[in-house]
């Protein structure tokens, strides 16, 4: 993460330019002809604190495959040899899933920003502190990235023997409700489109987790039957 933060510190200006693009192109109050007249930096140390914040948050996002790998590696000692192999394989999907969630959040940003800034009454402009805006954007990206880790968490719990595919499947009502509540809280806009944009892919990934864990459980049952000499048909 330290190395990732250093890289983000070096490319700070390019990162900030990419992050402010949604608000510059939103066409909301305070923004004129694609210019970012609504964004301001306040305070003497504001620019420095902003650069440090972008570097730290950016390092967290950029190095997500590494710290996710470390997280699964922490669980690996408690797994059997074959389970470790599967854990490492699925750990490799952690980074891409996080990146997919963060990418979806970035795609949604222009709409979210336009809706939120649109609450300004009449022709009154809205001066947005750049520090506050960057906080909003980076948290938005991280929340979506973490949400996309749901299937990976369920699969690893299944590999570790904590839950079965049948249990995961039986939770579908609670899971869908929980995903809906999380999406409603995590998305900053009051419109249903942002909520559905997060809820739909996470719910689909939950379905993928059910399929994967069902395949793994069936394989476990067959191996157990071979060991015990039970050759009856397995589900």
From TrEMBL:
The keyword Transmembrane helix applies. The chain crosses the membrane at residues 54-75, 87-109, 136-159, 171-189, 195-216. It is a multi-pass membrane protein. Its main location: membrane. The keyword Protein transport applies. Keywords: Cell membrane, Membrane, Protein transport, Translocation, Transmembrane, Transmembrane helix, Transport. It comes from the Bacteria. The Tat system comprises two distinct complexes: a TatABC complex, containing multiple copies of TatA, TatB and TatC subunits, and a separate TatA complex, containing only TatA subunits. Substrates initially bind to the TatABC complex, which probably triggers association of the separate TatA complex to form the active translocon. This is Sec-independent protein translocase protein TatC. It is found in: Cell membrane; Membrane. Belongs to the TatC family. Pfam families: TatC. Part of the twin-arginine translocation (Tat) system that transports large folded proteins containing a characteristic twin-arginine motif in their signal peptide across membranes. Together with TatB, TatC is part of a receptor directly interacting with Tat signal peptides. Coiled coil: none annotated.
């Amino acid at each position: 993460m330290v190395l990732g933060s250093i890289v983000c510190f070096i490319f700070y200006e390019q990162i900030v330019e990419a992050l402010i693009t949604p608000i510059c192109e939103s066409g909301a109050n305070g923004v004129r002809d694609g210019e970012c007249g609504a964004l301001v930096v306040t305070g003497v140390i504001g620019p420095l604190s902003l650069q440090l914040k972008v570097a730290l948050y950016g390092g967290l996002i950029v190095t997500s495959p590494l710290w996710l790998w470390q997280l699964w590696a922490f669980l690996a000692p408690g797994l059997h040899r074959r389970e470790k192999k599967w854990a490492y394989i699925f750990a490799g999907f952690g980074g891409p899933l996080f990146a997919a969630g963060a990418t979806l959040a970035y795609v949604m940003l222009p709409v979210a920003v336009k809706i939120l800034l649109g609450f300004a009454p009449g022709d009154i402009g809205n001066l947005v502190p750049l520090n506050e805006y960057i906080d909003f954007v980076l948290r938005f990206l991280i929340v979506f990235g973490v949400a996309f880790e749901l299937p990976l968490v369920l699969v690893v719990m299944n590999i570790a023997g904590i839950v079965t595919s049948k249990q995961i499947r039986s939770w579908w009502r609670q899971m869908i409700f929980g995903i809906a509540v999380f999406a409603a809280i995590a998305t900053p806009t009051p419109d249903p489109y942002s909520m559905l944009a997060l809820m739909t892919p996470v719910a689909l990934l939950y379905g993928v987790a059910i399929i994967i864990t069902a395949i793994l459980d069936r394989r476990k049952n067959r191996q157990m039957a071979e060991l015990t000499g039970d050759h009856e048909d397995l589900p």
